[in-house]
Amino acid sequence: MPPALPVSRRAPSLWRAAVLIFDLSLARMLWSRGTIFMALLVGLPVVLAVLVRGLQALGLSNMRIEGQVVSGPTIFGFMVWWLYLRFIVPVLALYYGTALVADEVEDKTITYLFTRPIRRGAVLLGKFLAYFVCTVMVVLPSLMIVYFLMGLSGATLAGTFPSLLKDLGLIVLGLLAYGGLFAWVGARFKRPLVIGLVFVFGFEQMALIIPGYIRYATVSFYLQSLVPHAVMGE
């Protein structure tokens, strides 16, 4: 029986290796060119909220659609669904999720990771955790800024805060679901970005309007079922 390896040469556990990969990947994500893209993307709802507040300051606070007053909670609900859950979350997950493994393979740097005594699953897990923390740190503050810009604090806080917590949870759930899906696509297929674009802006869009069971194969269908206030404008 061969002697046991010294402690210093033993392979780290799955979680220990994942934490090491997480530390390395998070720093690279935060200081990459993609950070500018991510900041511009999450800044879009903030700009729109500022415009809405500007219109309200000009005396257009009683905007109506089909005879019904469009209130702050209604606008916020539509922004959560159409901007965050239907656009920002899928695009961020697509951009970062497909690149977790695909970029390492394309740059031929994944070989250096696999020369270390760590499991391959730890590499993907650590990179996924870095993606999740990075996107949550940017998206959730953006949502909170929009929430306060829409004037949903103060007197309306008690009525809107539970919905805000639900929206925060759904955005986190969306980042996990889409991120996991696109991380798998990036690790499994060539040209994962093209596949992801077709899925998000092609298949999902069509599946939600076509009657039948095909919508059950989309992520957005399950998110939509959890946000009735955002879709119905309640």
Q: Beta-strand level of the residues, as a percent range?
A: under 5%
Order of helices and strands: HHEEHHHHHHHH
Mean pLDDT: 80
Anisotropy-based shape: globular
**If you compute it from the alpha carbons, what radius of gyration comes out, rounded to the nearest whole angstrom?**
21 Å
Give the helix proportion (percent range): over 70%
Number of strands: 2
Which tags fit this structure?
globular, 10 helices, about 230 residues, disordered C terminus, two-stranded antiparallel sheet, about 75% helix, mainly alpha
What does this structure look like?
By secondary structure, this protein is an all-alpha fold. The chain has 10 helices and 2 strands. Strands 1-2 form a two-stranded antiparallel ribbon. The longest helix has 32 residues, at 157-188. The protein is globular and about 65 Å long.
Give the SSE layout.
Layout: H1 14-30, H2 34-57, E1 64-65, E2 68-69, H3 72-97, H4 99-106, H5 110-114, H6 120-149, H7 157-188, H8 192-207, H9 219-225, H10 228-232
Antiparallel strand pairs: 1-2
